[in-house]
Amino acid sequence: MLSYNVKLEKVTSIQLPTQLFVMLALHVNRTEEWTNGRNGAMAGFVPFCLSSDSPLSLLLVADNGTHLQSLLKGLQQVKDQNNDTFNLHSCESVKQLLKLTEPPPVDFVAFCVNLKRLNALNEIEGSILRLDQAFLLNRICLVCDRSQASSALMPKIINMKHKYQLHVIWGYLESKPEEVSMRLLNLASAVCGANSGFPLITHREWHERQRQDGDFSSIASDGTS
Questions:
Q1: Which Gene3D superfamilies match (predicted)?
Q2: What CATH number did the domain enclosing 165 receive?
Q3: Residue 116 and residue 156: Cα distance in Å, rounded?
């Protein structure tokens, strides 16, 4: 697992929004479970962290080394050009984090979808179920390479998007990694409140939502209507 730490100016928030208290409650519920998991009593979950050394902490998960390196390179370019600061962690599988005694603080998770592997989406869904429930409040994103786009997988991607309230970013990871990285960073910064101090929730809370056929998120996460 790779980790990058770059310090940024902290943002002080005066008032916490209602959604943040929801995430705090979910985080407290998972804390005991994670502790028990480290002691071998039960399987662990990747914990959600509301505070760290940086206003924003990202986790990139990709089993495709080329895609991972492209995103890491793109994020580094964005950081250098805009003087942004954030903590960046990466791994090939969420299972790697579950083996750590002290998991890194994470605010937002991005899964790079390997569309060349038929089982990739099933594995990502399994990984989502190993994340703290607070991540389901808008803090998970699927990053898909347009050059690998397959119409056969679109129904599965759309179903996962609505089932878990995910964001989806489409782009050219190999030819335009900086563009994809900028969109990812802007998205993560907005929903985590890295700049404003107030987290933004664009979807209805997953545990209160009544799923219906044809029911779409209020804001299109992939930039389309």
A1: P-loop containing nucleotide triphosphate hydrolases
A2: 3.40.50.300
A3: 14
